């Protein structure tokens, strides 16, 4: 091929083939037990219900289920989601909802609408890689704040805000995955949610509250959304059907002040015109016919068992120097290895031992996290989890011996 490199925009030049992609390629061999992919378990998809609802949607809605939809989304779905948000404590009507092609598109539209090159964006360390990628596409200056078992460390957030103020740098956005986060598997406490909104008011920034895992909740009441505390329209909430129903329809939504929704609708017109209609009607029927709640009940049973199996195996087999988060929902646990062990280089050995994970450094924006890794229990078959953890324990023990 002729020299294409010079044609790429500056912002696209950092998208290079990575070692991790190469390693994942190897992890595709059938003998590998992979804890890498954060996908839903393939056996969780409600195939029979989807078949029935597809037929119903096409016969009852005819053309409109097959035609382009309004850019802001099918109005019945927007109304139903507004009602659901209201039930969850966020007073909303349909004009506050934008249907998106997955919440990933919500992140892209938000970055497109709000980020100029060099704008400061605050993120948790570690943070969701897909959001970091969306921010990179618009050349954001990402500033990281560590999290602990209660979510983002608000005292460190405050000192970072003070430092930025002294440097004359004003952050525009704070991005948070509030429940059972990807990759850390932690939930932001109620006290900290209150502090975060207080800081947003004081230092004048917007909050992106990303919550794709909230429905996958194993045992407890999670704190209300940050958006419930939002008096000024500073919080933009992102929801998704990808984990609670299926990613095959790629339907998400954004709940925000209607002035933000109007702007994002215009931005979306130049992005994909509209979200797919058939998927929107499927999500609508899945919700309004009462399947969603029942399905979420089944999902939480399945994922709870997988989580329990993984954590028990980690307690049994991992060396005492290794620590990890104990998620109370969602798909992930985040592992910290002894300092000096590099999870990225260890991956090659892990794949030789037929086990895979995601090295944690790619979730960090401060060049750290080399001794961390993310394990997803969501996709692996329950029966293979213990064996996979045993293999990984062997790899870690060998690595520790040097
Ligand atoms: N946010 C987070 C934290 C995620 O983990 C994901 C998917 N892995 C997304 C957003 C995007 O989800 P979707 O586009 O499928 O709704």
TrEMBL record:
Signal sequence, renumbered to the chain: none
CDD domains linked to this entry: AAT_like
MF (Gene Ontology): pyridoxal phosphate binding; transaminase activity
Keywords attached to this entry: Aminotransferase, Pyridoxal phosphate, Transferase
Cofactor(s) this protein requires: pyridoxal 5'-phosphate
Assembly with partners or alone: Homodimer.
Protein family per UniProt: Belongs to the class-I pyridoxal-phosphate-dependent aminotransferase family.
UniProt protein name: Aminotransferase class I/II-fold pyridoxal phosphate-dependent enzyme
Species for this entry: Thermanaerosceptrum fracticalcis
């Amino acid at each position: 091929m002729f020299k294409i490199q010079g044609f790429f925009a500056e912002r696209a030049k950092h998208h290079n083939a990575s070692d991790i992609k190469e390693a994942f390629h190897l992890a595709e061999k059938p003998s590998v037990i992979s804890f890498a992919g954060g996908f839903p378990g393939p056996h969780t998809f409600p195939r029979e219900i989807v078949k029935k609802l597809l037929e119903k949607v096409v016969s009852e809605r005819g053309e409109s289920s097959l035609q382009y939809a309004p850019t802001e989304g099918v109005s019945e779905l927007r109304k139903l989601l507004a009602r659901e948000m209201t039930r969850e404590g966020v007073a909303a009507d349909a004009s506050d909802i934008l249907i998106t092609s997955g919440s990933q598109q919500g992140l892209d539209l938000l970055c497109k609408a709000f980020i100029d090159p060099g704008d400061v964006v605050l993120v948790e360390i570690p943070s969701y890689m897909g959001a970091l990628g969306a921010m990179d596409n618009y050349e954001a200056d990402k500033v990281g704040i560590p999290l602990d078992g209660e979510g983002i460390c608000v005292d460190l957030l405050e000192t970072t805000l003070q430092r930025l103020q002294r440097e004359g740098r004003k952050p525009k956005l704070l991005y948070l995955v509030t429940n059972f986060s990807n990759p850390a598997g932690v939930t932001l406490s109620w006290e900290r949610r209150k502090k975060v909104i207080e800081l947003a008011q004081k230092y004048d920034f917007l909050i992106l509250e990303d919550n794709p895992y909230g429905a996958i909740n194993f045992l407890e009441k999670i704190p209300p959304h940050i958006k419930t505390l939002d008096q000024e329209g500073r919080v933009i909430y992102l929801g998704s059907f990808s984990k609670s129903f299926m990613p095959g329809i790629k339907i998400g939504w954004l709940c925000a002040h209607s002035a933000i929704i109007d702007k994002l609708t215009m931005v979306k017109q130049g992005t994909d015109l509209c979200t797919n209609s058939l998927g929107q009607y499927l999500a609508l029927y899945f919700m309004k016919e009462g399947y969603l709640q029942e399905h979420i009940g089944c999902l939480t049973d399945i994922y709870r068992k997988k989580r329990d199996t993984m954590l028990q195996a980690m307690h049994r087999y991992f060396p005492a120097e290794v620590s990890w988060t104990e998620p109370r929902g969602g798909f992930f646990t985040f592992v910290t290895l002894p300092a000096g062990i590099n999870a990225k280089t260890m991956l090659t050995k892990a794949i030789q031992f037929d086990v895979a994970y995601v090295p944690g450094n790619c979730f960090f924006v401060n060049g750290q996290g080399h001794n961390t890794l993310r394990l997803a229990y969501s996709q692996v078959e329950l029966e293979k989890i213990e064996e996979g953890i045993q293999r990984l324990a062997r790899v870690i023990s060998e690595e520790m011996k040097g």
